[in-house]
Structure formats: structure tokens, C-alpha cells
Write a structure and sequence with these properties.
By secondary structure, this protein is mostly helical. It contains 11 helices and no strands. The protein has 2 domains: about 30-105, no CATH class; about 115-230, no CATH class.
Length: about 260
Amino acid sequence: MKKTASRKAAKPAKKAPKRFVKRGYMGSTETVPLAIAAREAFDYQRHLGNVDDQADFKAWRHEQVRACVGRDGLTDCLHKHFKPLLAHFQTLAGKDAEAFANSMQTGPASSKPGDDYEQRRVLAHLIMEVLAAHIWLAEVSAQELATQTESTAAYQKLRARREAIRSHPDGAIREGYIVSLARSKTRRRDLNLGRDLKAGLADRCNVDQLEQIRDTLINRIAAREGIEDNGRNKSQKSPAAKAACSPHDLAPRFDLPDDLPEF
């Protein structure tokens, strides 16, 4: 009886390296839907005869991005460009109703100076990004953390922050804290941000409130990770800040617990 040669197990395919995204720029959660919308627009315009059959899709998409927001491509766009670009491609795809709905979510969001939809989305994205980085640090293994850092010194600092989170009785700060912060800053106890916290924050909080949520979250995370307080809470300790929290105010802030369960 002939022996069959044993086959070596196939090597697992290597994962494509993650693209580094600068803060403020669109990531895959925004560029992918835009690329899909652009493809629909390209096919529709080619069907109408407005685009040559031999035209290159990527070149056409880059041309449309430059015409709409003045950037070189989707990966060169900021968070604030998402809605204008989506509305632009939806218009070119013949989806006028969807384009109109998205175009209404750009520009000023209220009569308050500086409160616009684009800045709201940028701040909401940053808030969830800061929270995600904190939770990742709390849950990452020491081995994986070592592979993610460029130097021993950087690894030691992150390791110390990771241990500070894990040694705290309540562990990492979670999504529930964002909900409670939003309720506190808006002074709405029944505020519901929905399942998509980022969208809920951008829709239900103005720019000033989101900036306060961002700053409070960053400070609380820094304290949880054992980062030294170099005066970051100084403004909150001033007499004016304390008076703003007085229970005698007409619309006082309600007390915010130090630690809250995950929602």
C-alpha cells in the first residue's frame, strides 16, 4: 500500500496593514460608503451618456472630489466633508431626495455662533475615538501592546497606564459615561442618544456641549490612566465654576457619579 505524501498546511493569508489616518481625516467608515456612492453616480452618469464608456472611475471620482470640496481624494478629506460629498454623489446618481436630506445636514445647525453640523460631527468622532483608544488600552494584551509601540520607553508608559486602568475597582470608562455626560451637559435627564452614540451626540448636542463632553472625558480618562494632573482641572476649581454648579441656580447641573456601568 502506497503512502500518500502529507501536505503542508496552507499559510494563513497576511492581513493588509491598517492605513494610518491622521486625526480629523476621514477613515474607512466614511470613505467606503462614499466610494460606493461615487460608483453608483459614475455608473448612472455613464448610462446617461454624460461620462465616456472608457473613462477611468478613480480619475473621475478624484475630479468630482476636487470640484465639490477642493481636496485631492477621499483619503485627503476631513470629517466635515462627508455629508457634502455624499449629497454630491447622490445628486449625480439621481437620488435627489437623499441628496436634499444630506445637504440639509450641512452648514449652521442652530442660531448659536459656531454651531454647525460639520463641527458637531468632528467633535462627536473625536469623543468616540478617545473613548475607543482608552478601552483598547485597557483590554489589549501585554504582547500585542509591545508590537504596537515603537520604543521601550513608549511601551513602558503605555504599560503603566494600562495597569492603572486595570487596578482601578471599576476598570475602564465605558460608553455609559458618555451618555451621562451628555445628559449632564445638556441638562436633559431623559436624553436618548440611540444605539449609534456618535450620530446621537452630533444630532442632540451643540458644539459647546460637545467640547465640554470632550474635555471632561479626556480629563477623566487621564485620571483613570494615572496621568499626572498638570492643572488641567484648574478652571473647574475657580469660584466662577463652582458658582455655576450652585444648587440655587435656576437650571442647576445634576450630580454626575464618578463611575457608571456600561450601557
